[in-house]
Design goal:
- The structure is a single chain.
- Helices cover 23% and strands 47% of the residues.
- The protein is of the alpha+beta class.
- It has a single domain, classed as Roll (Nuclear Transport Factor 2, Chain: A), CATH 3.10.450.50.
Length: 135
């Protein structure tokens, strides 16, 4: 049986790996996955396509859930999200040692009714990630 859910990360990822260029641990990644489930009930990730090339696996994934917990700067909306993403995994010894993740966070915030700030100051000063939004 293939492990499922956030705990599967402990078997899928090396204990230490890089996520979008920064060092991460499988434990921290699992905690982050659990947080998404707290914010979005029924959270799921459907793998729509997989491409394997040597030690790399690329997946096109759709993330879904219902916004039931405050997330970033957005209070609970009860709205559903349907967000596409691409993941590139590099494996060594059967585990992920490098993971690049991109998802359409702009579309997610629009689906939640949040208005992304697109002024020059927020773009220049924003940290990586979807934090430059207003409700």
């Amino acid at each position: 049986m293939v492990p499922r859910g956030p705990a599967a990360a402990l078997e899928f990822y090396a204990p230490r790996f890089t996520l979008n260029g920064a060092e991460e641990t499988a434990d921290a990644f699992t905690s982050g996955s659990l947080a998404w489930r707290e914010h979005f009930s029924g959270f799921s990730a459907t793998v729509d396509e997989v491409i394997v090339c040597g030690d790399r696996v690329i997946s096109r994934t759709t993330f879904r859930g219902t916004h039931q917990g405050a997330f970033e700067t957005v209070p609970v909306t009860g709205r559903s999200i349907d967000v596409s993403g691409i993941d590139v995994f590099r494996f060594r010894d059967g585990r992920v040692v490098e993971h690049w993740h991109e998802a359409d966070h702009y579309a997610m915030f629009v689906q939640l009714g949040a208005t992304p700030r697109l002024d020059a100051a927020s773009v220049v000063n924003a940290a990586p990630g979807p934090s430059a939004v207003t409700k």
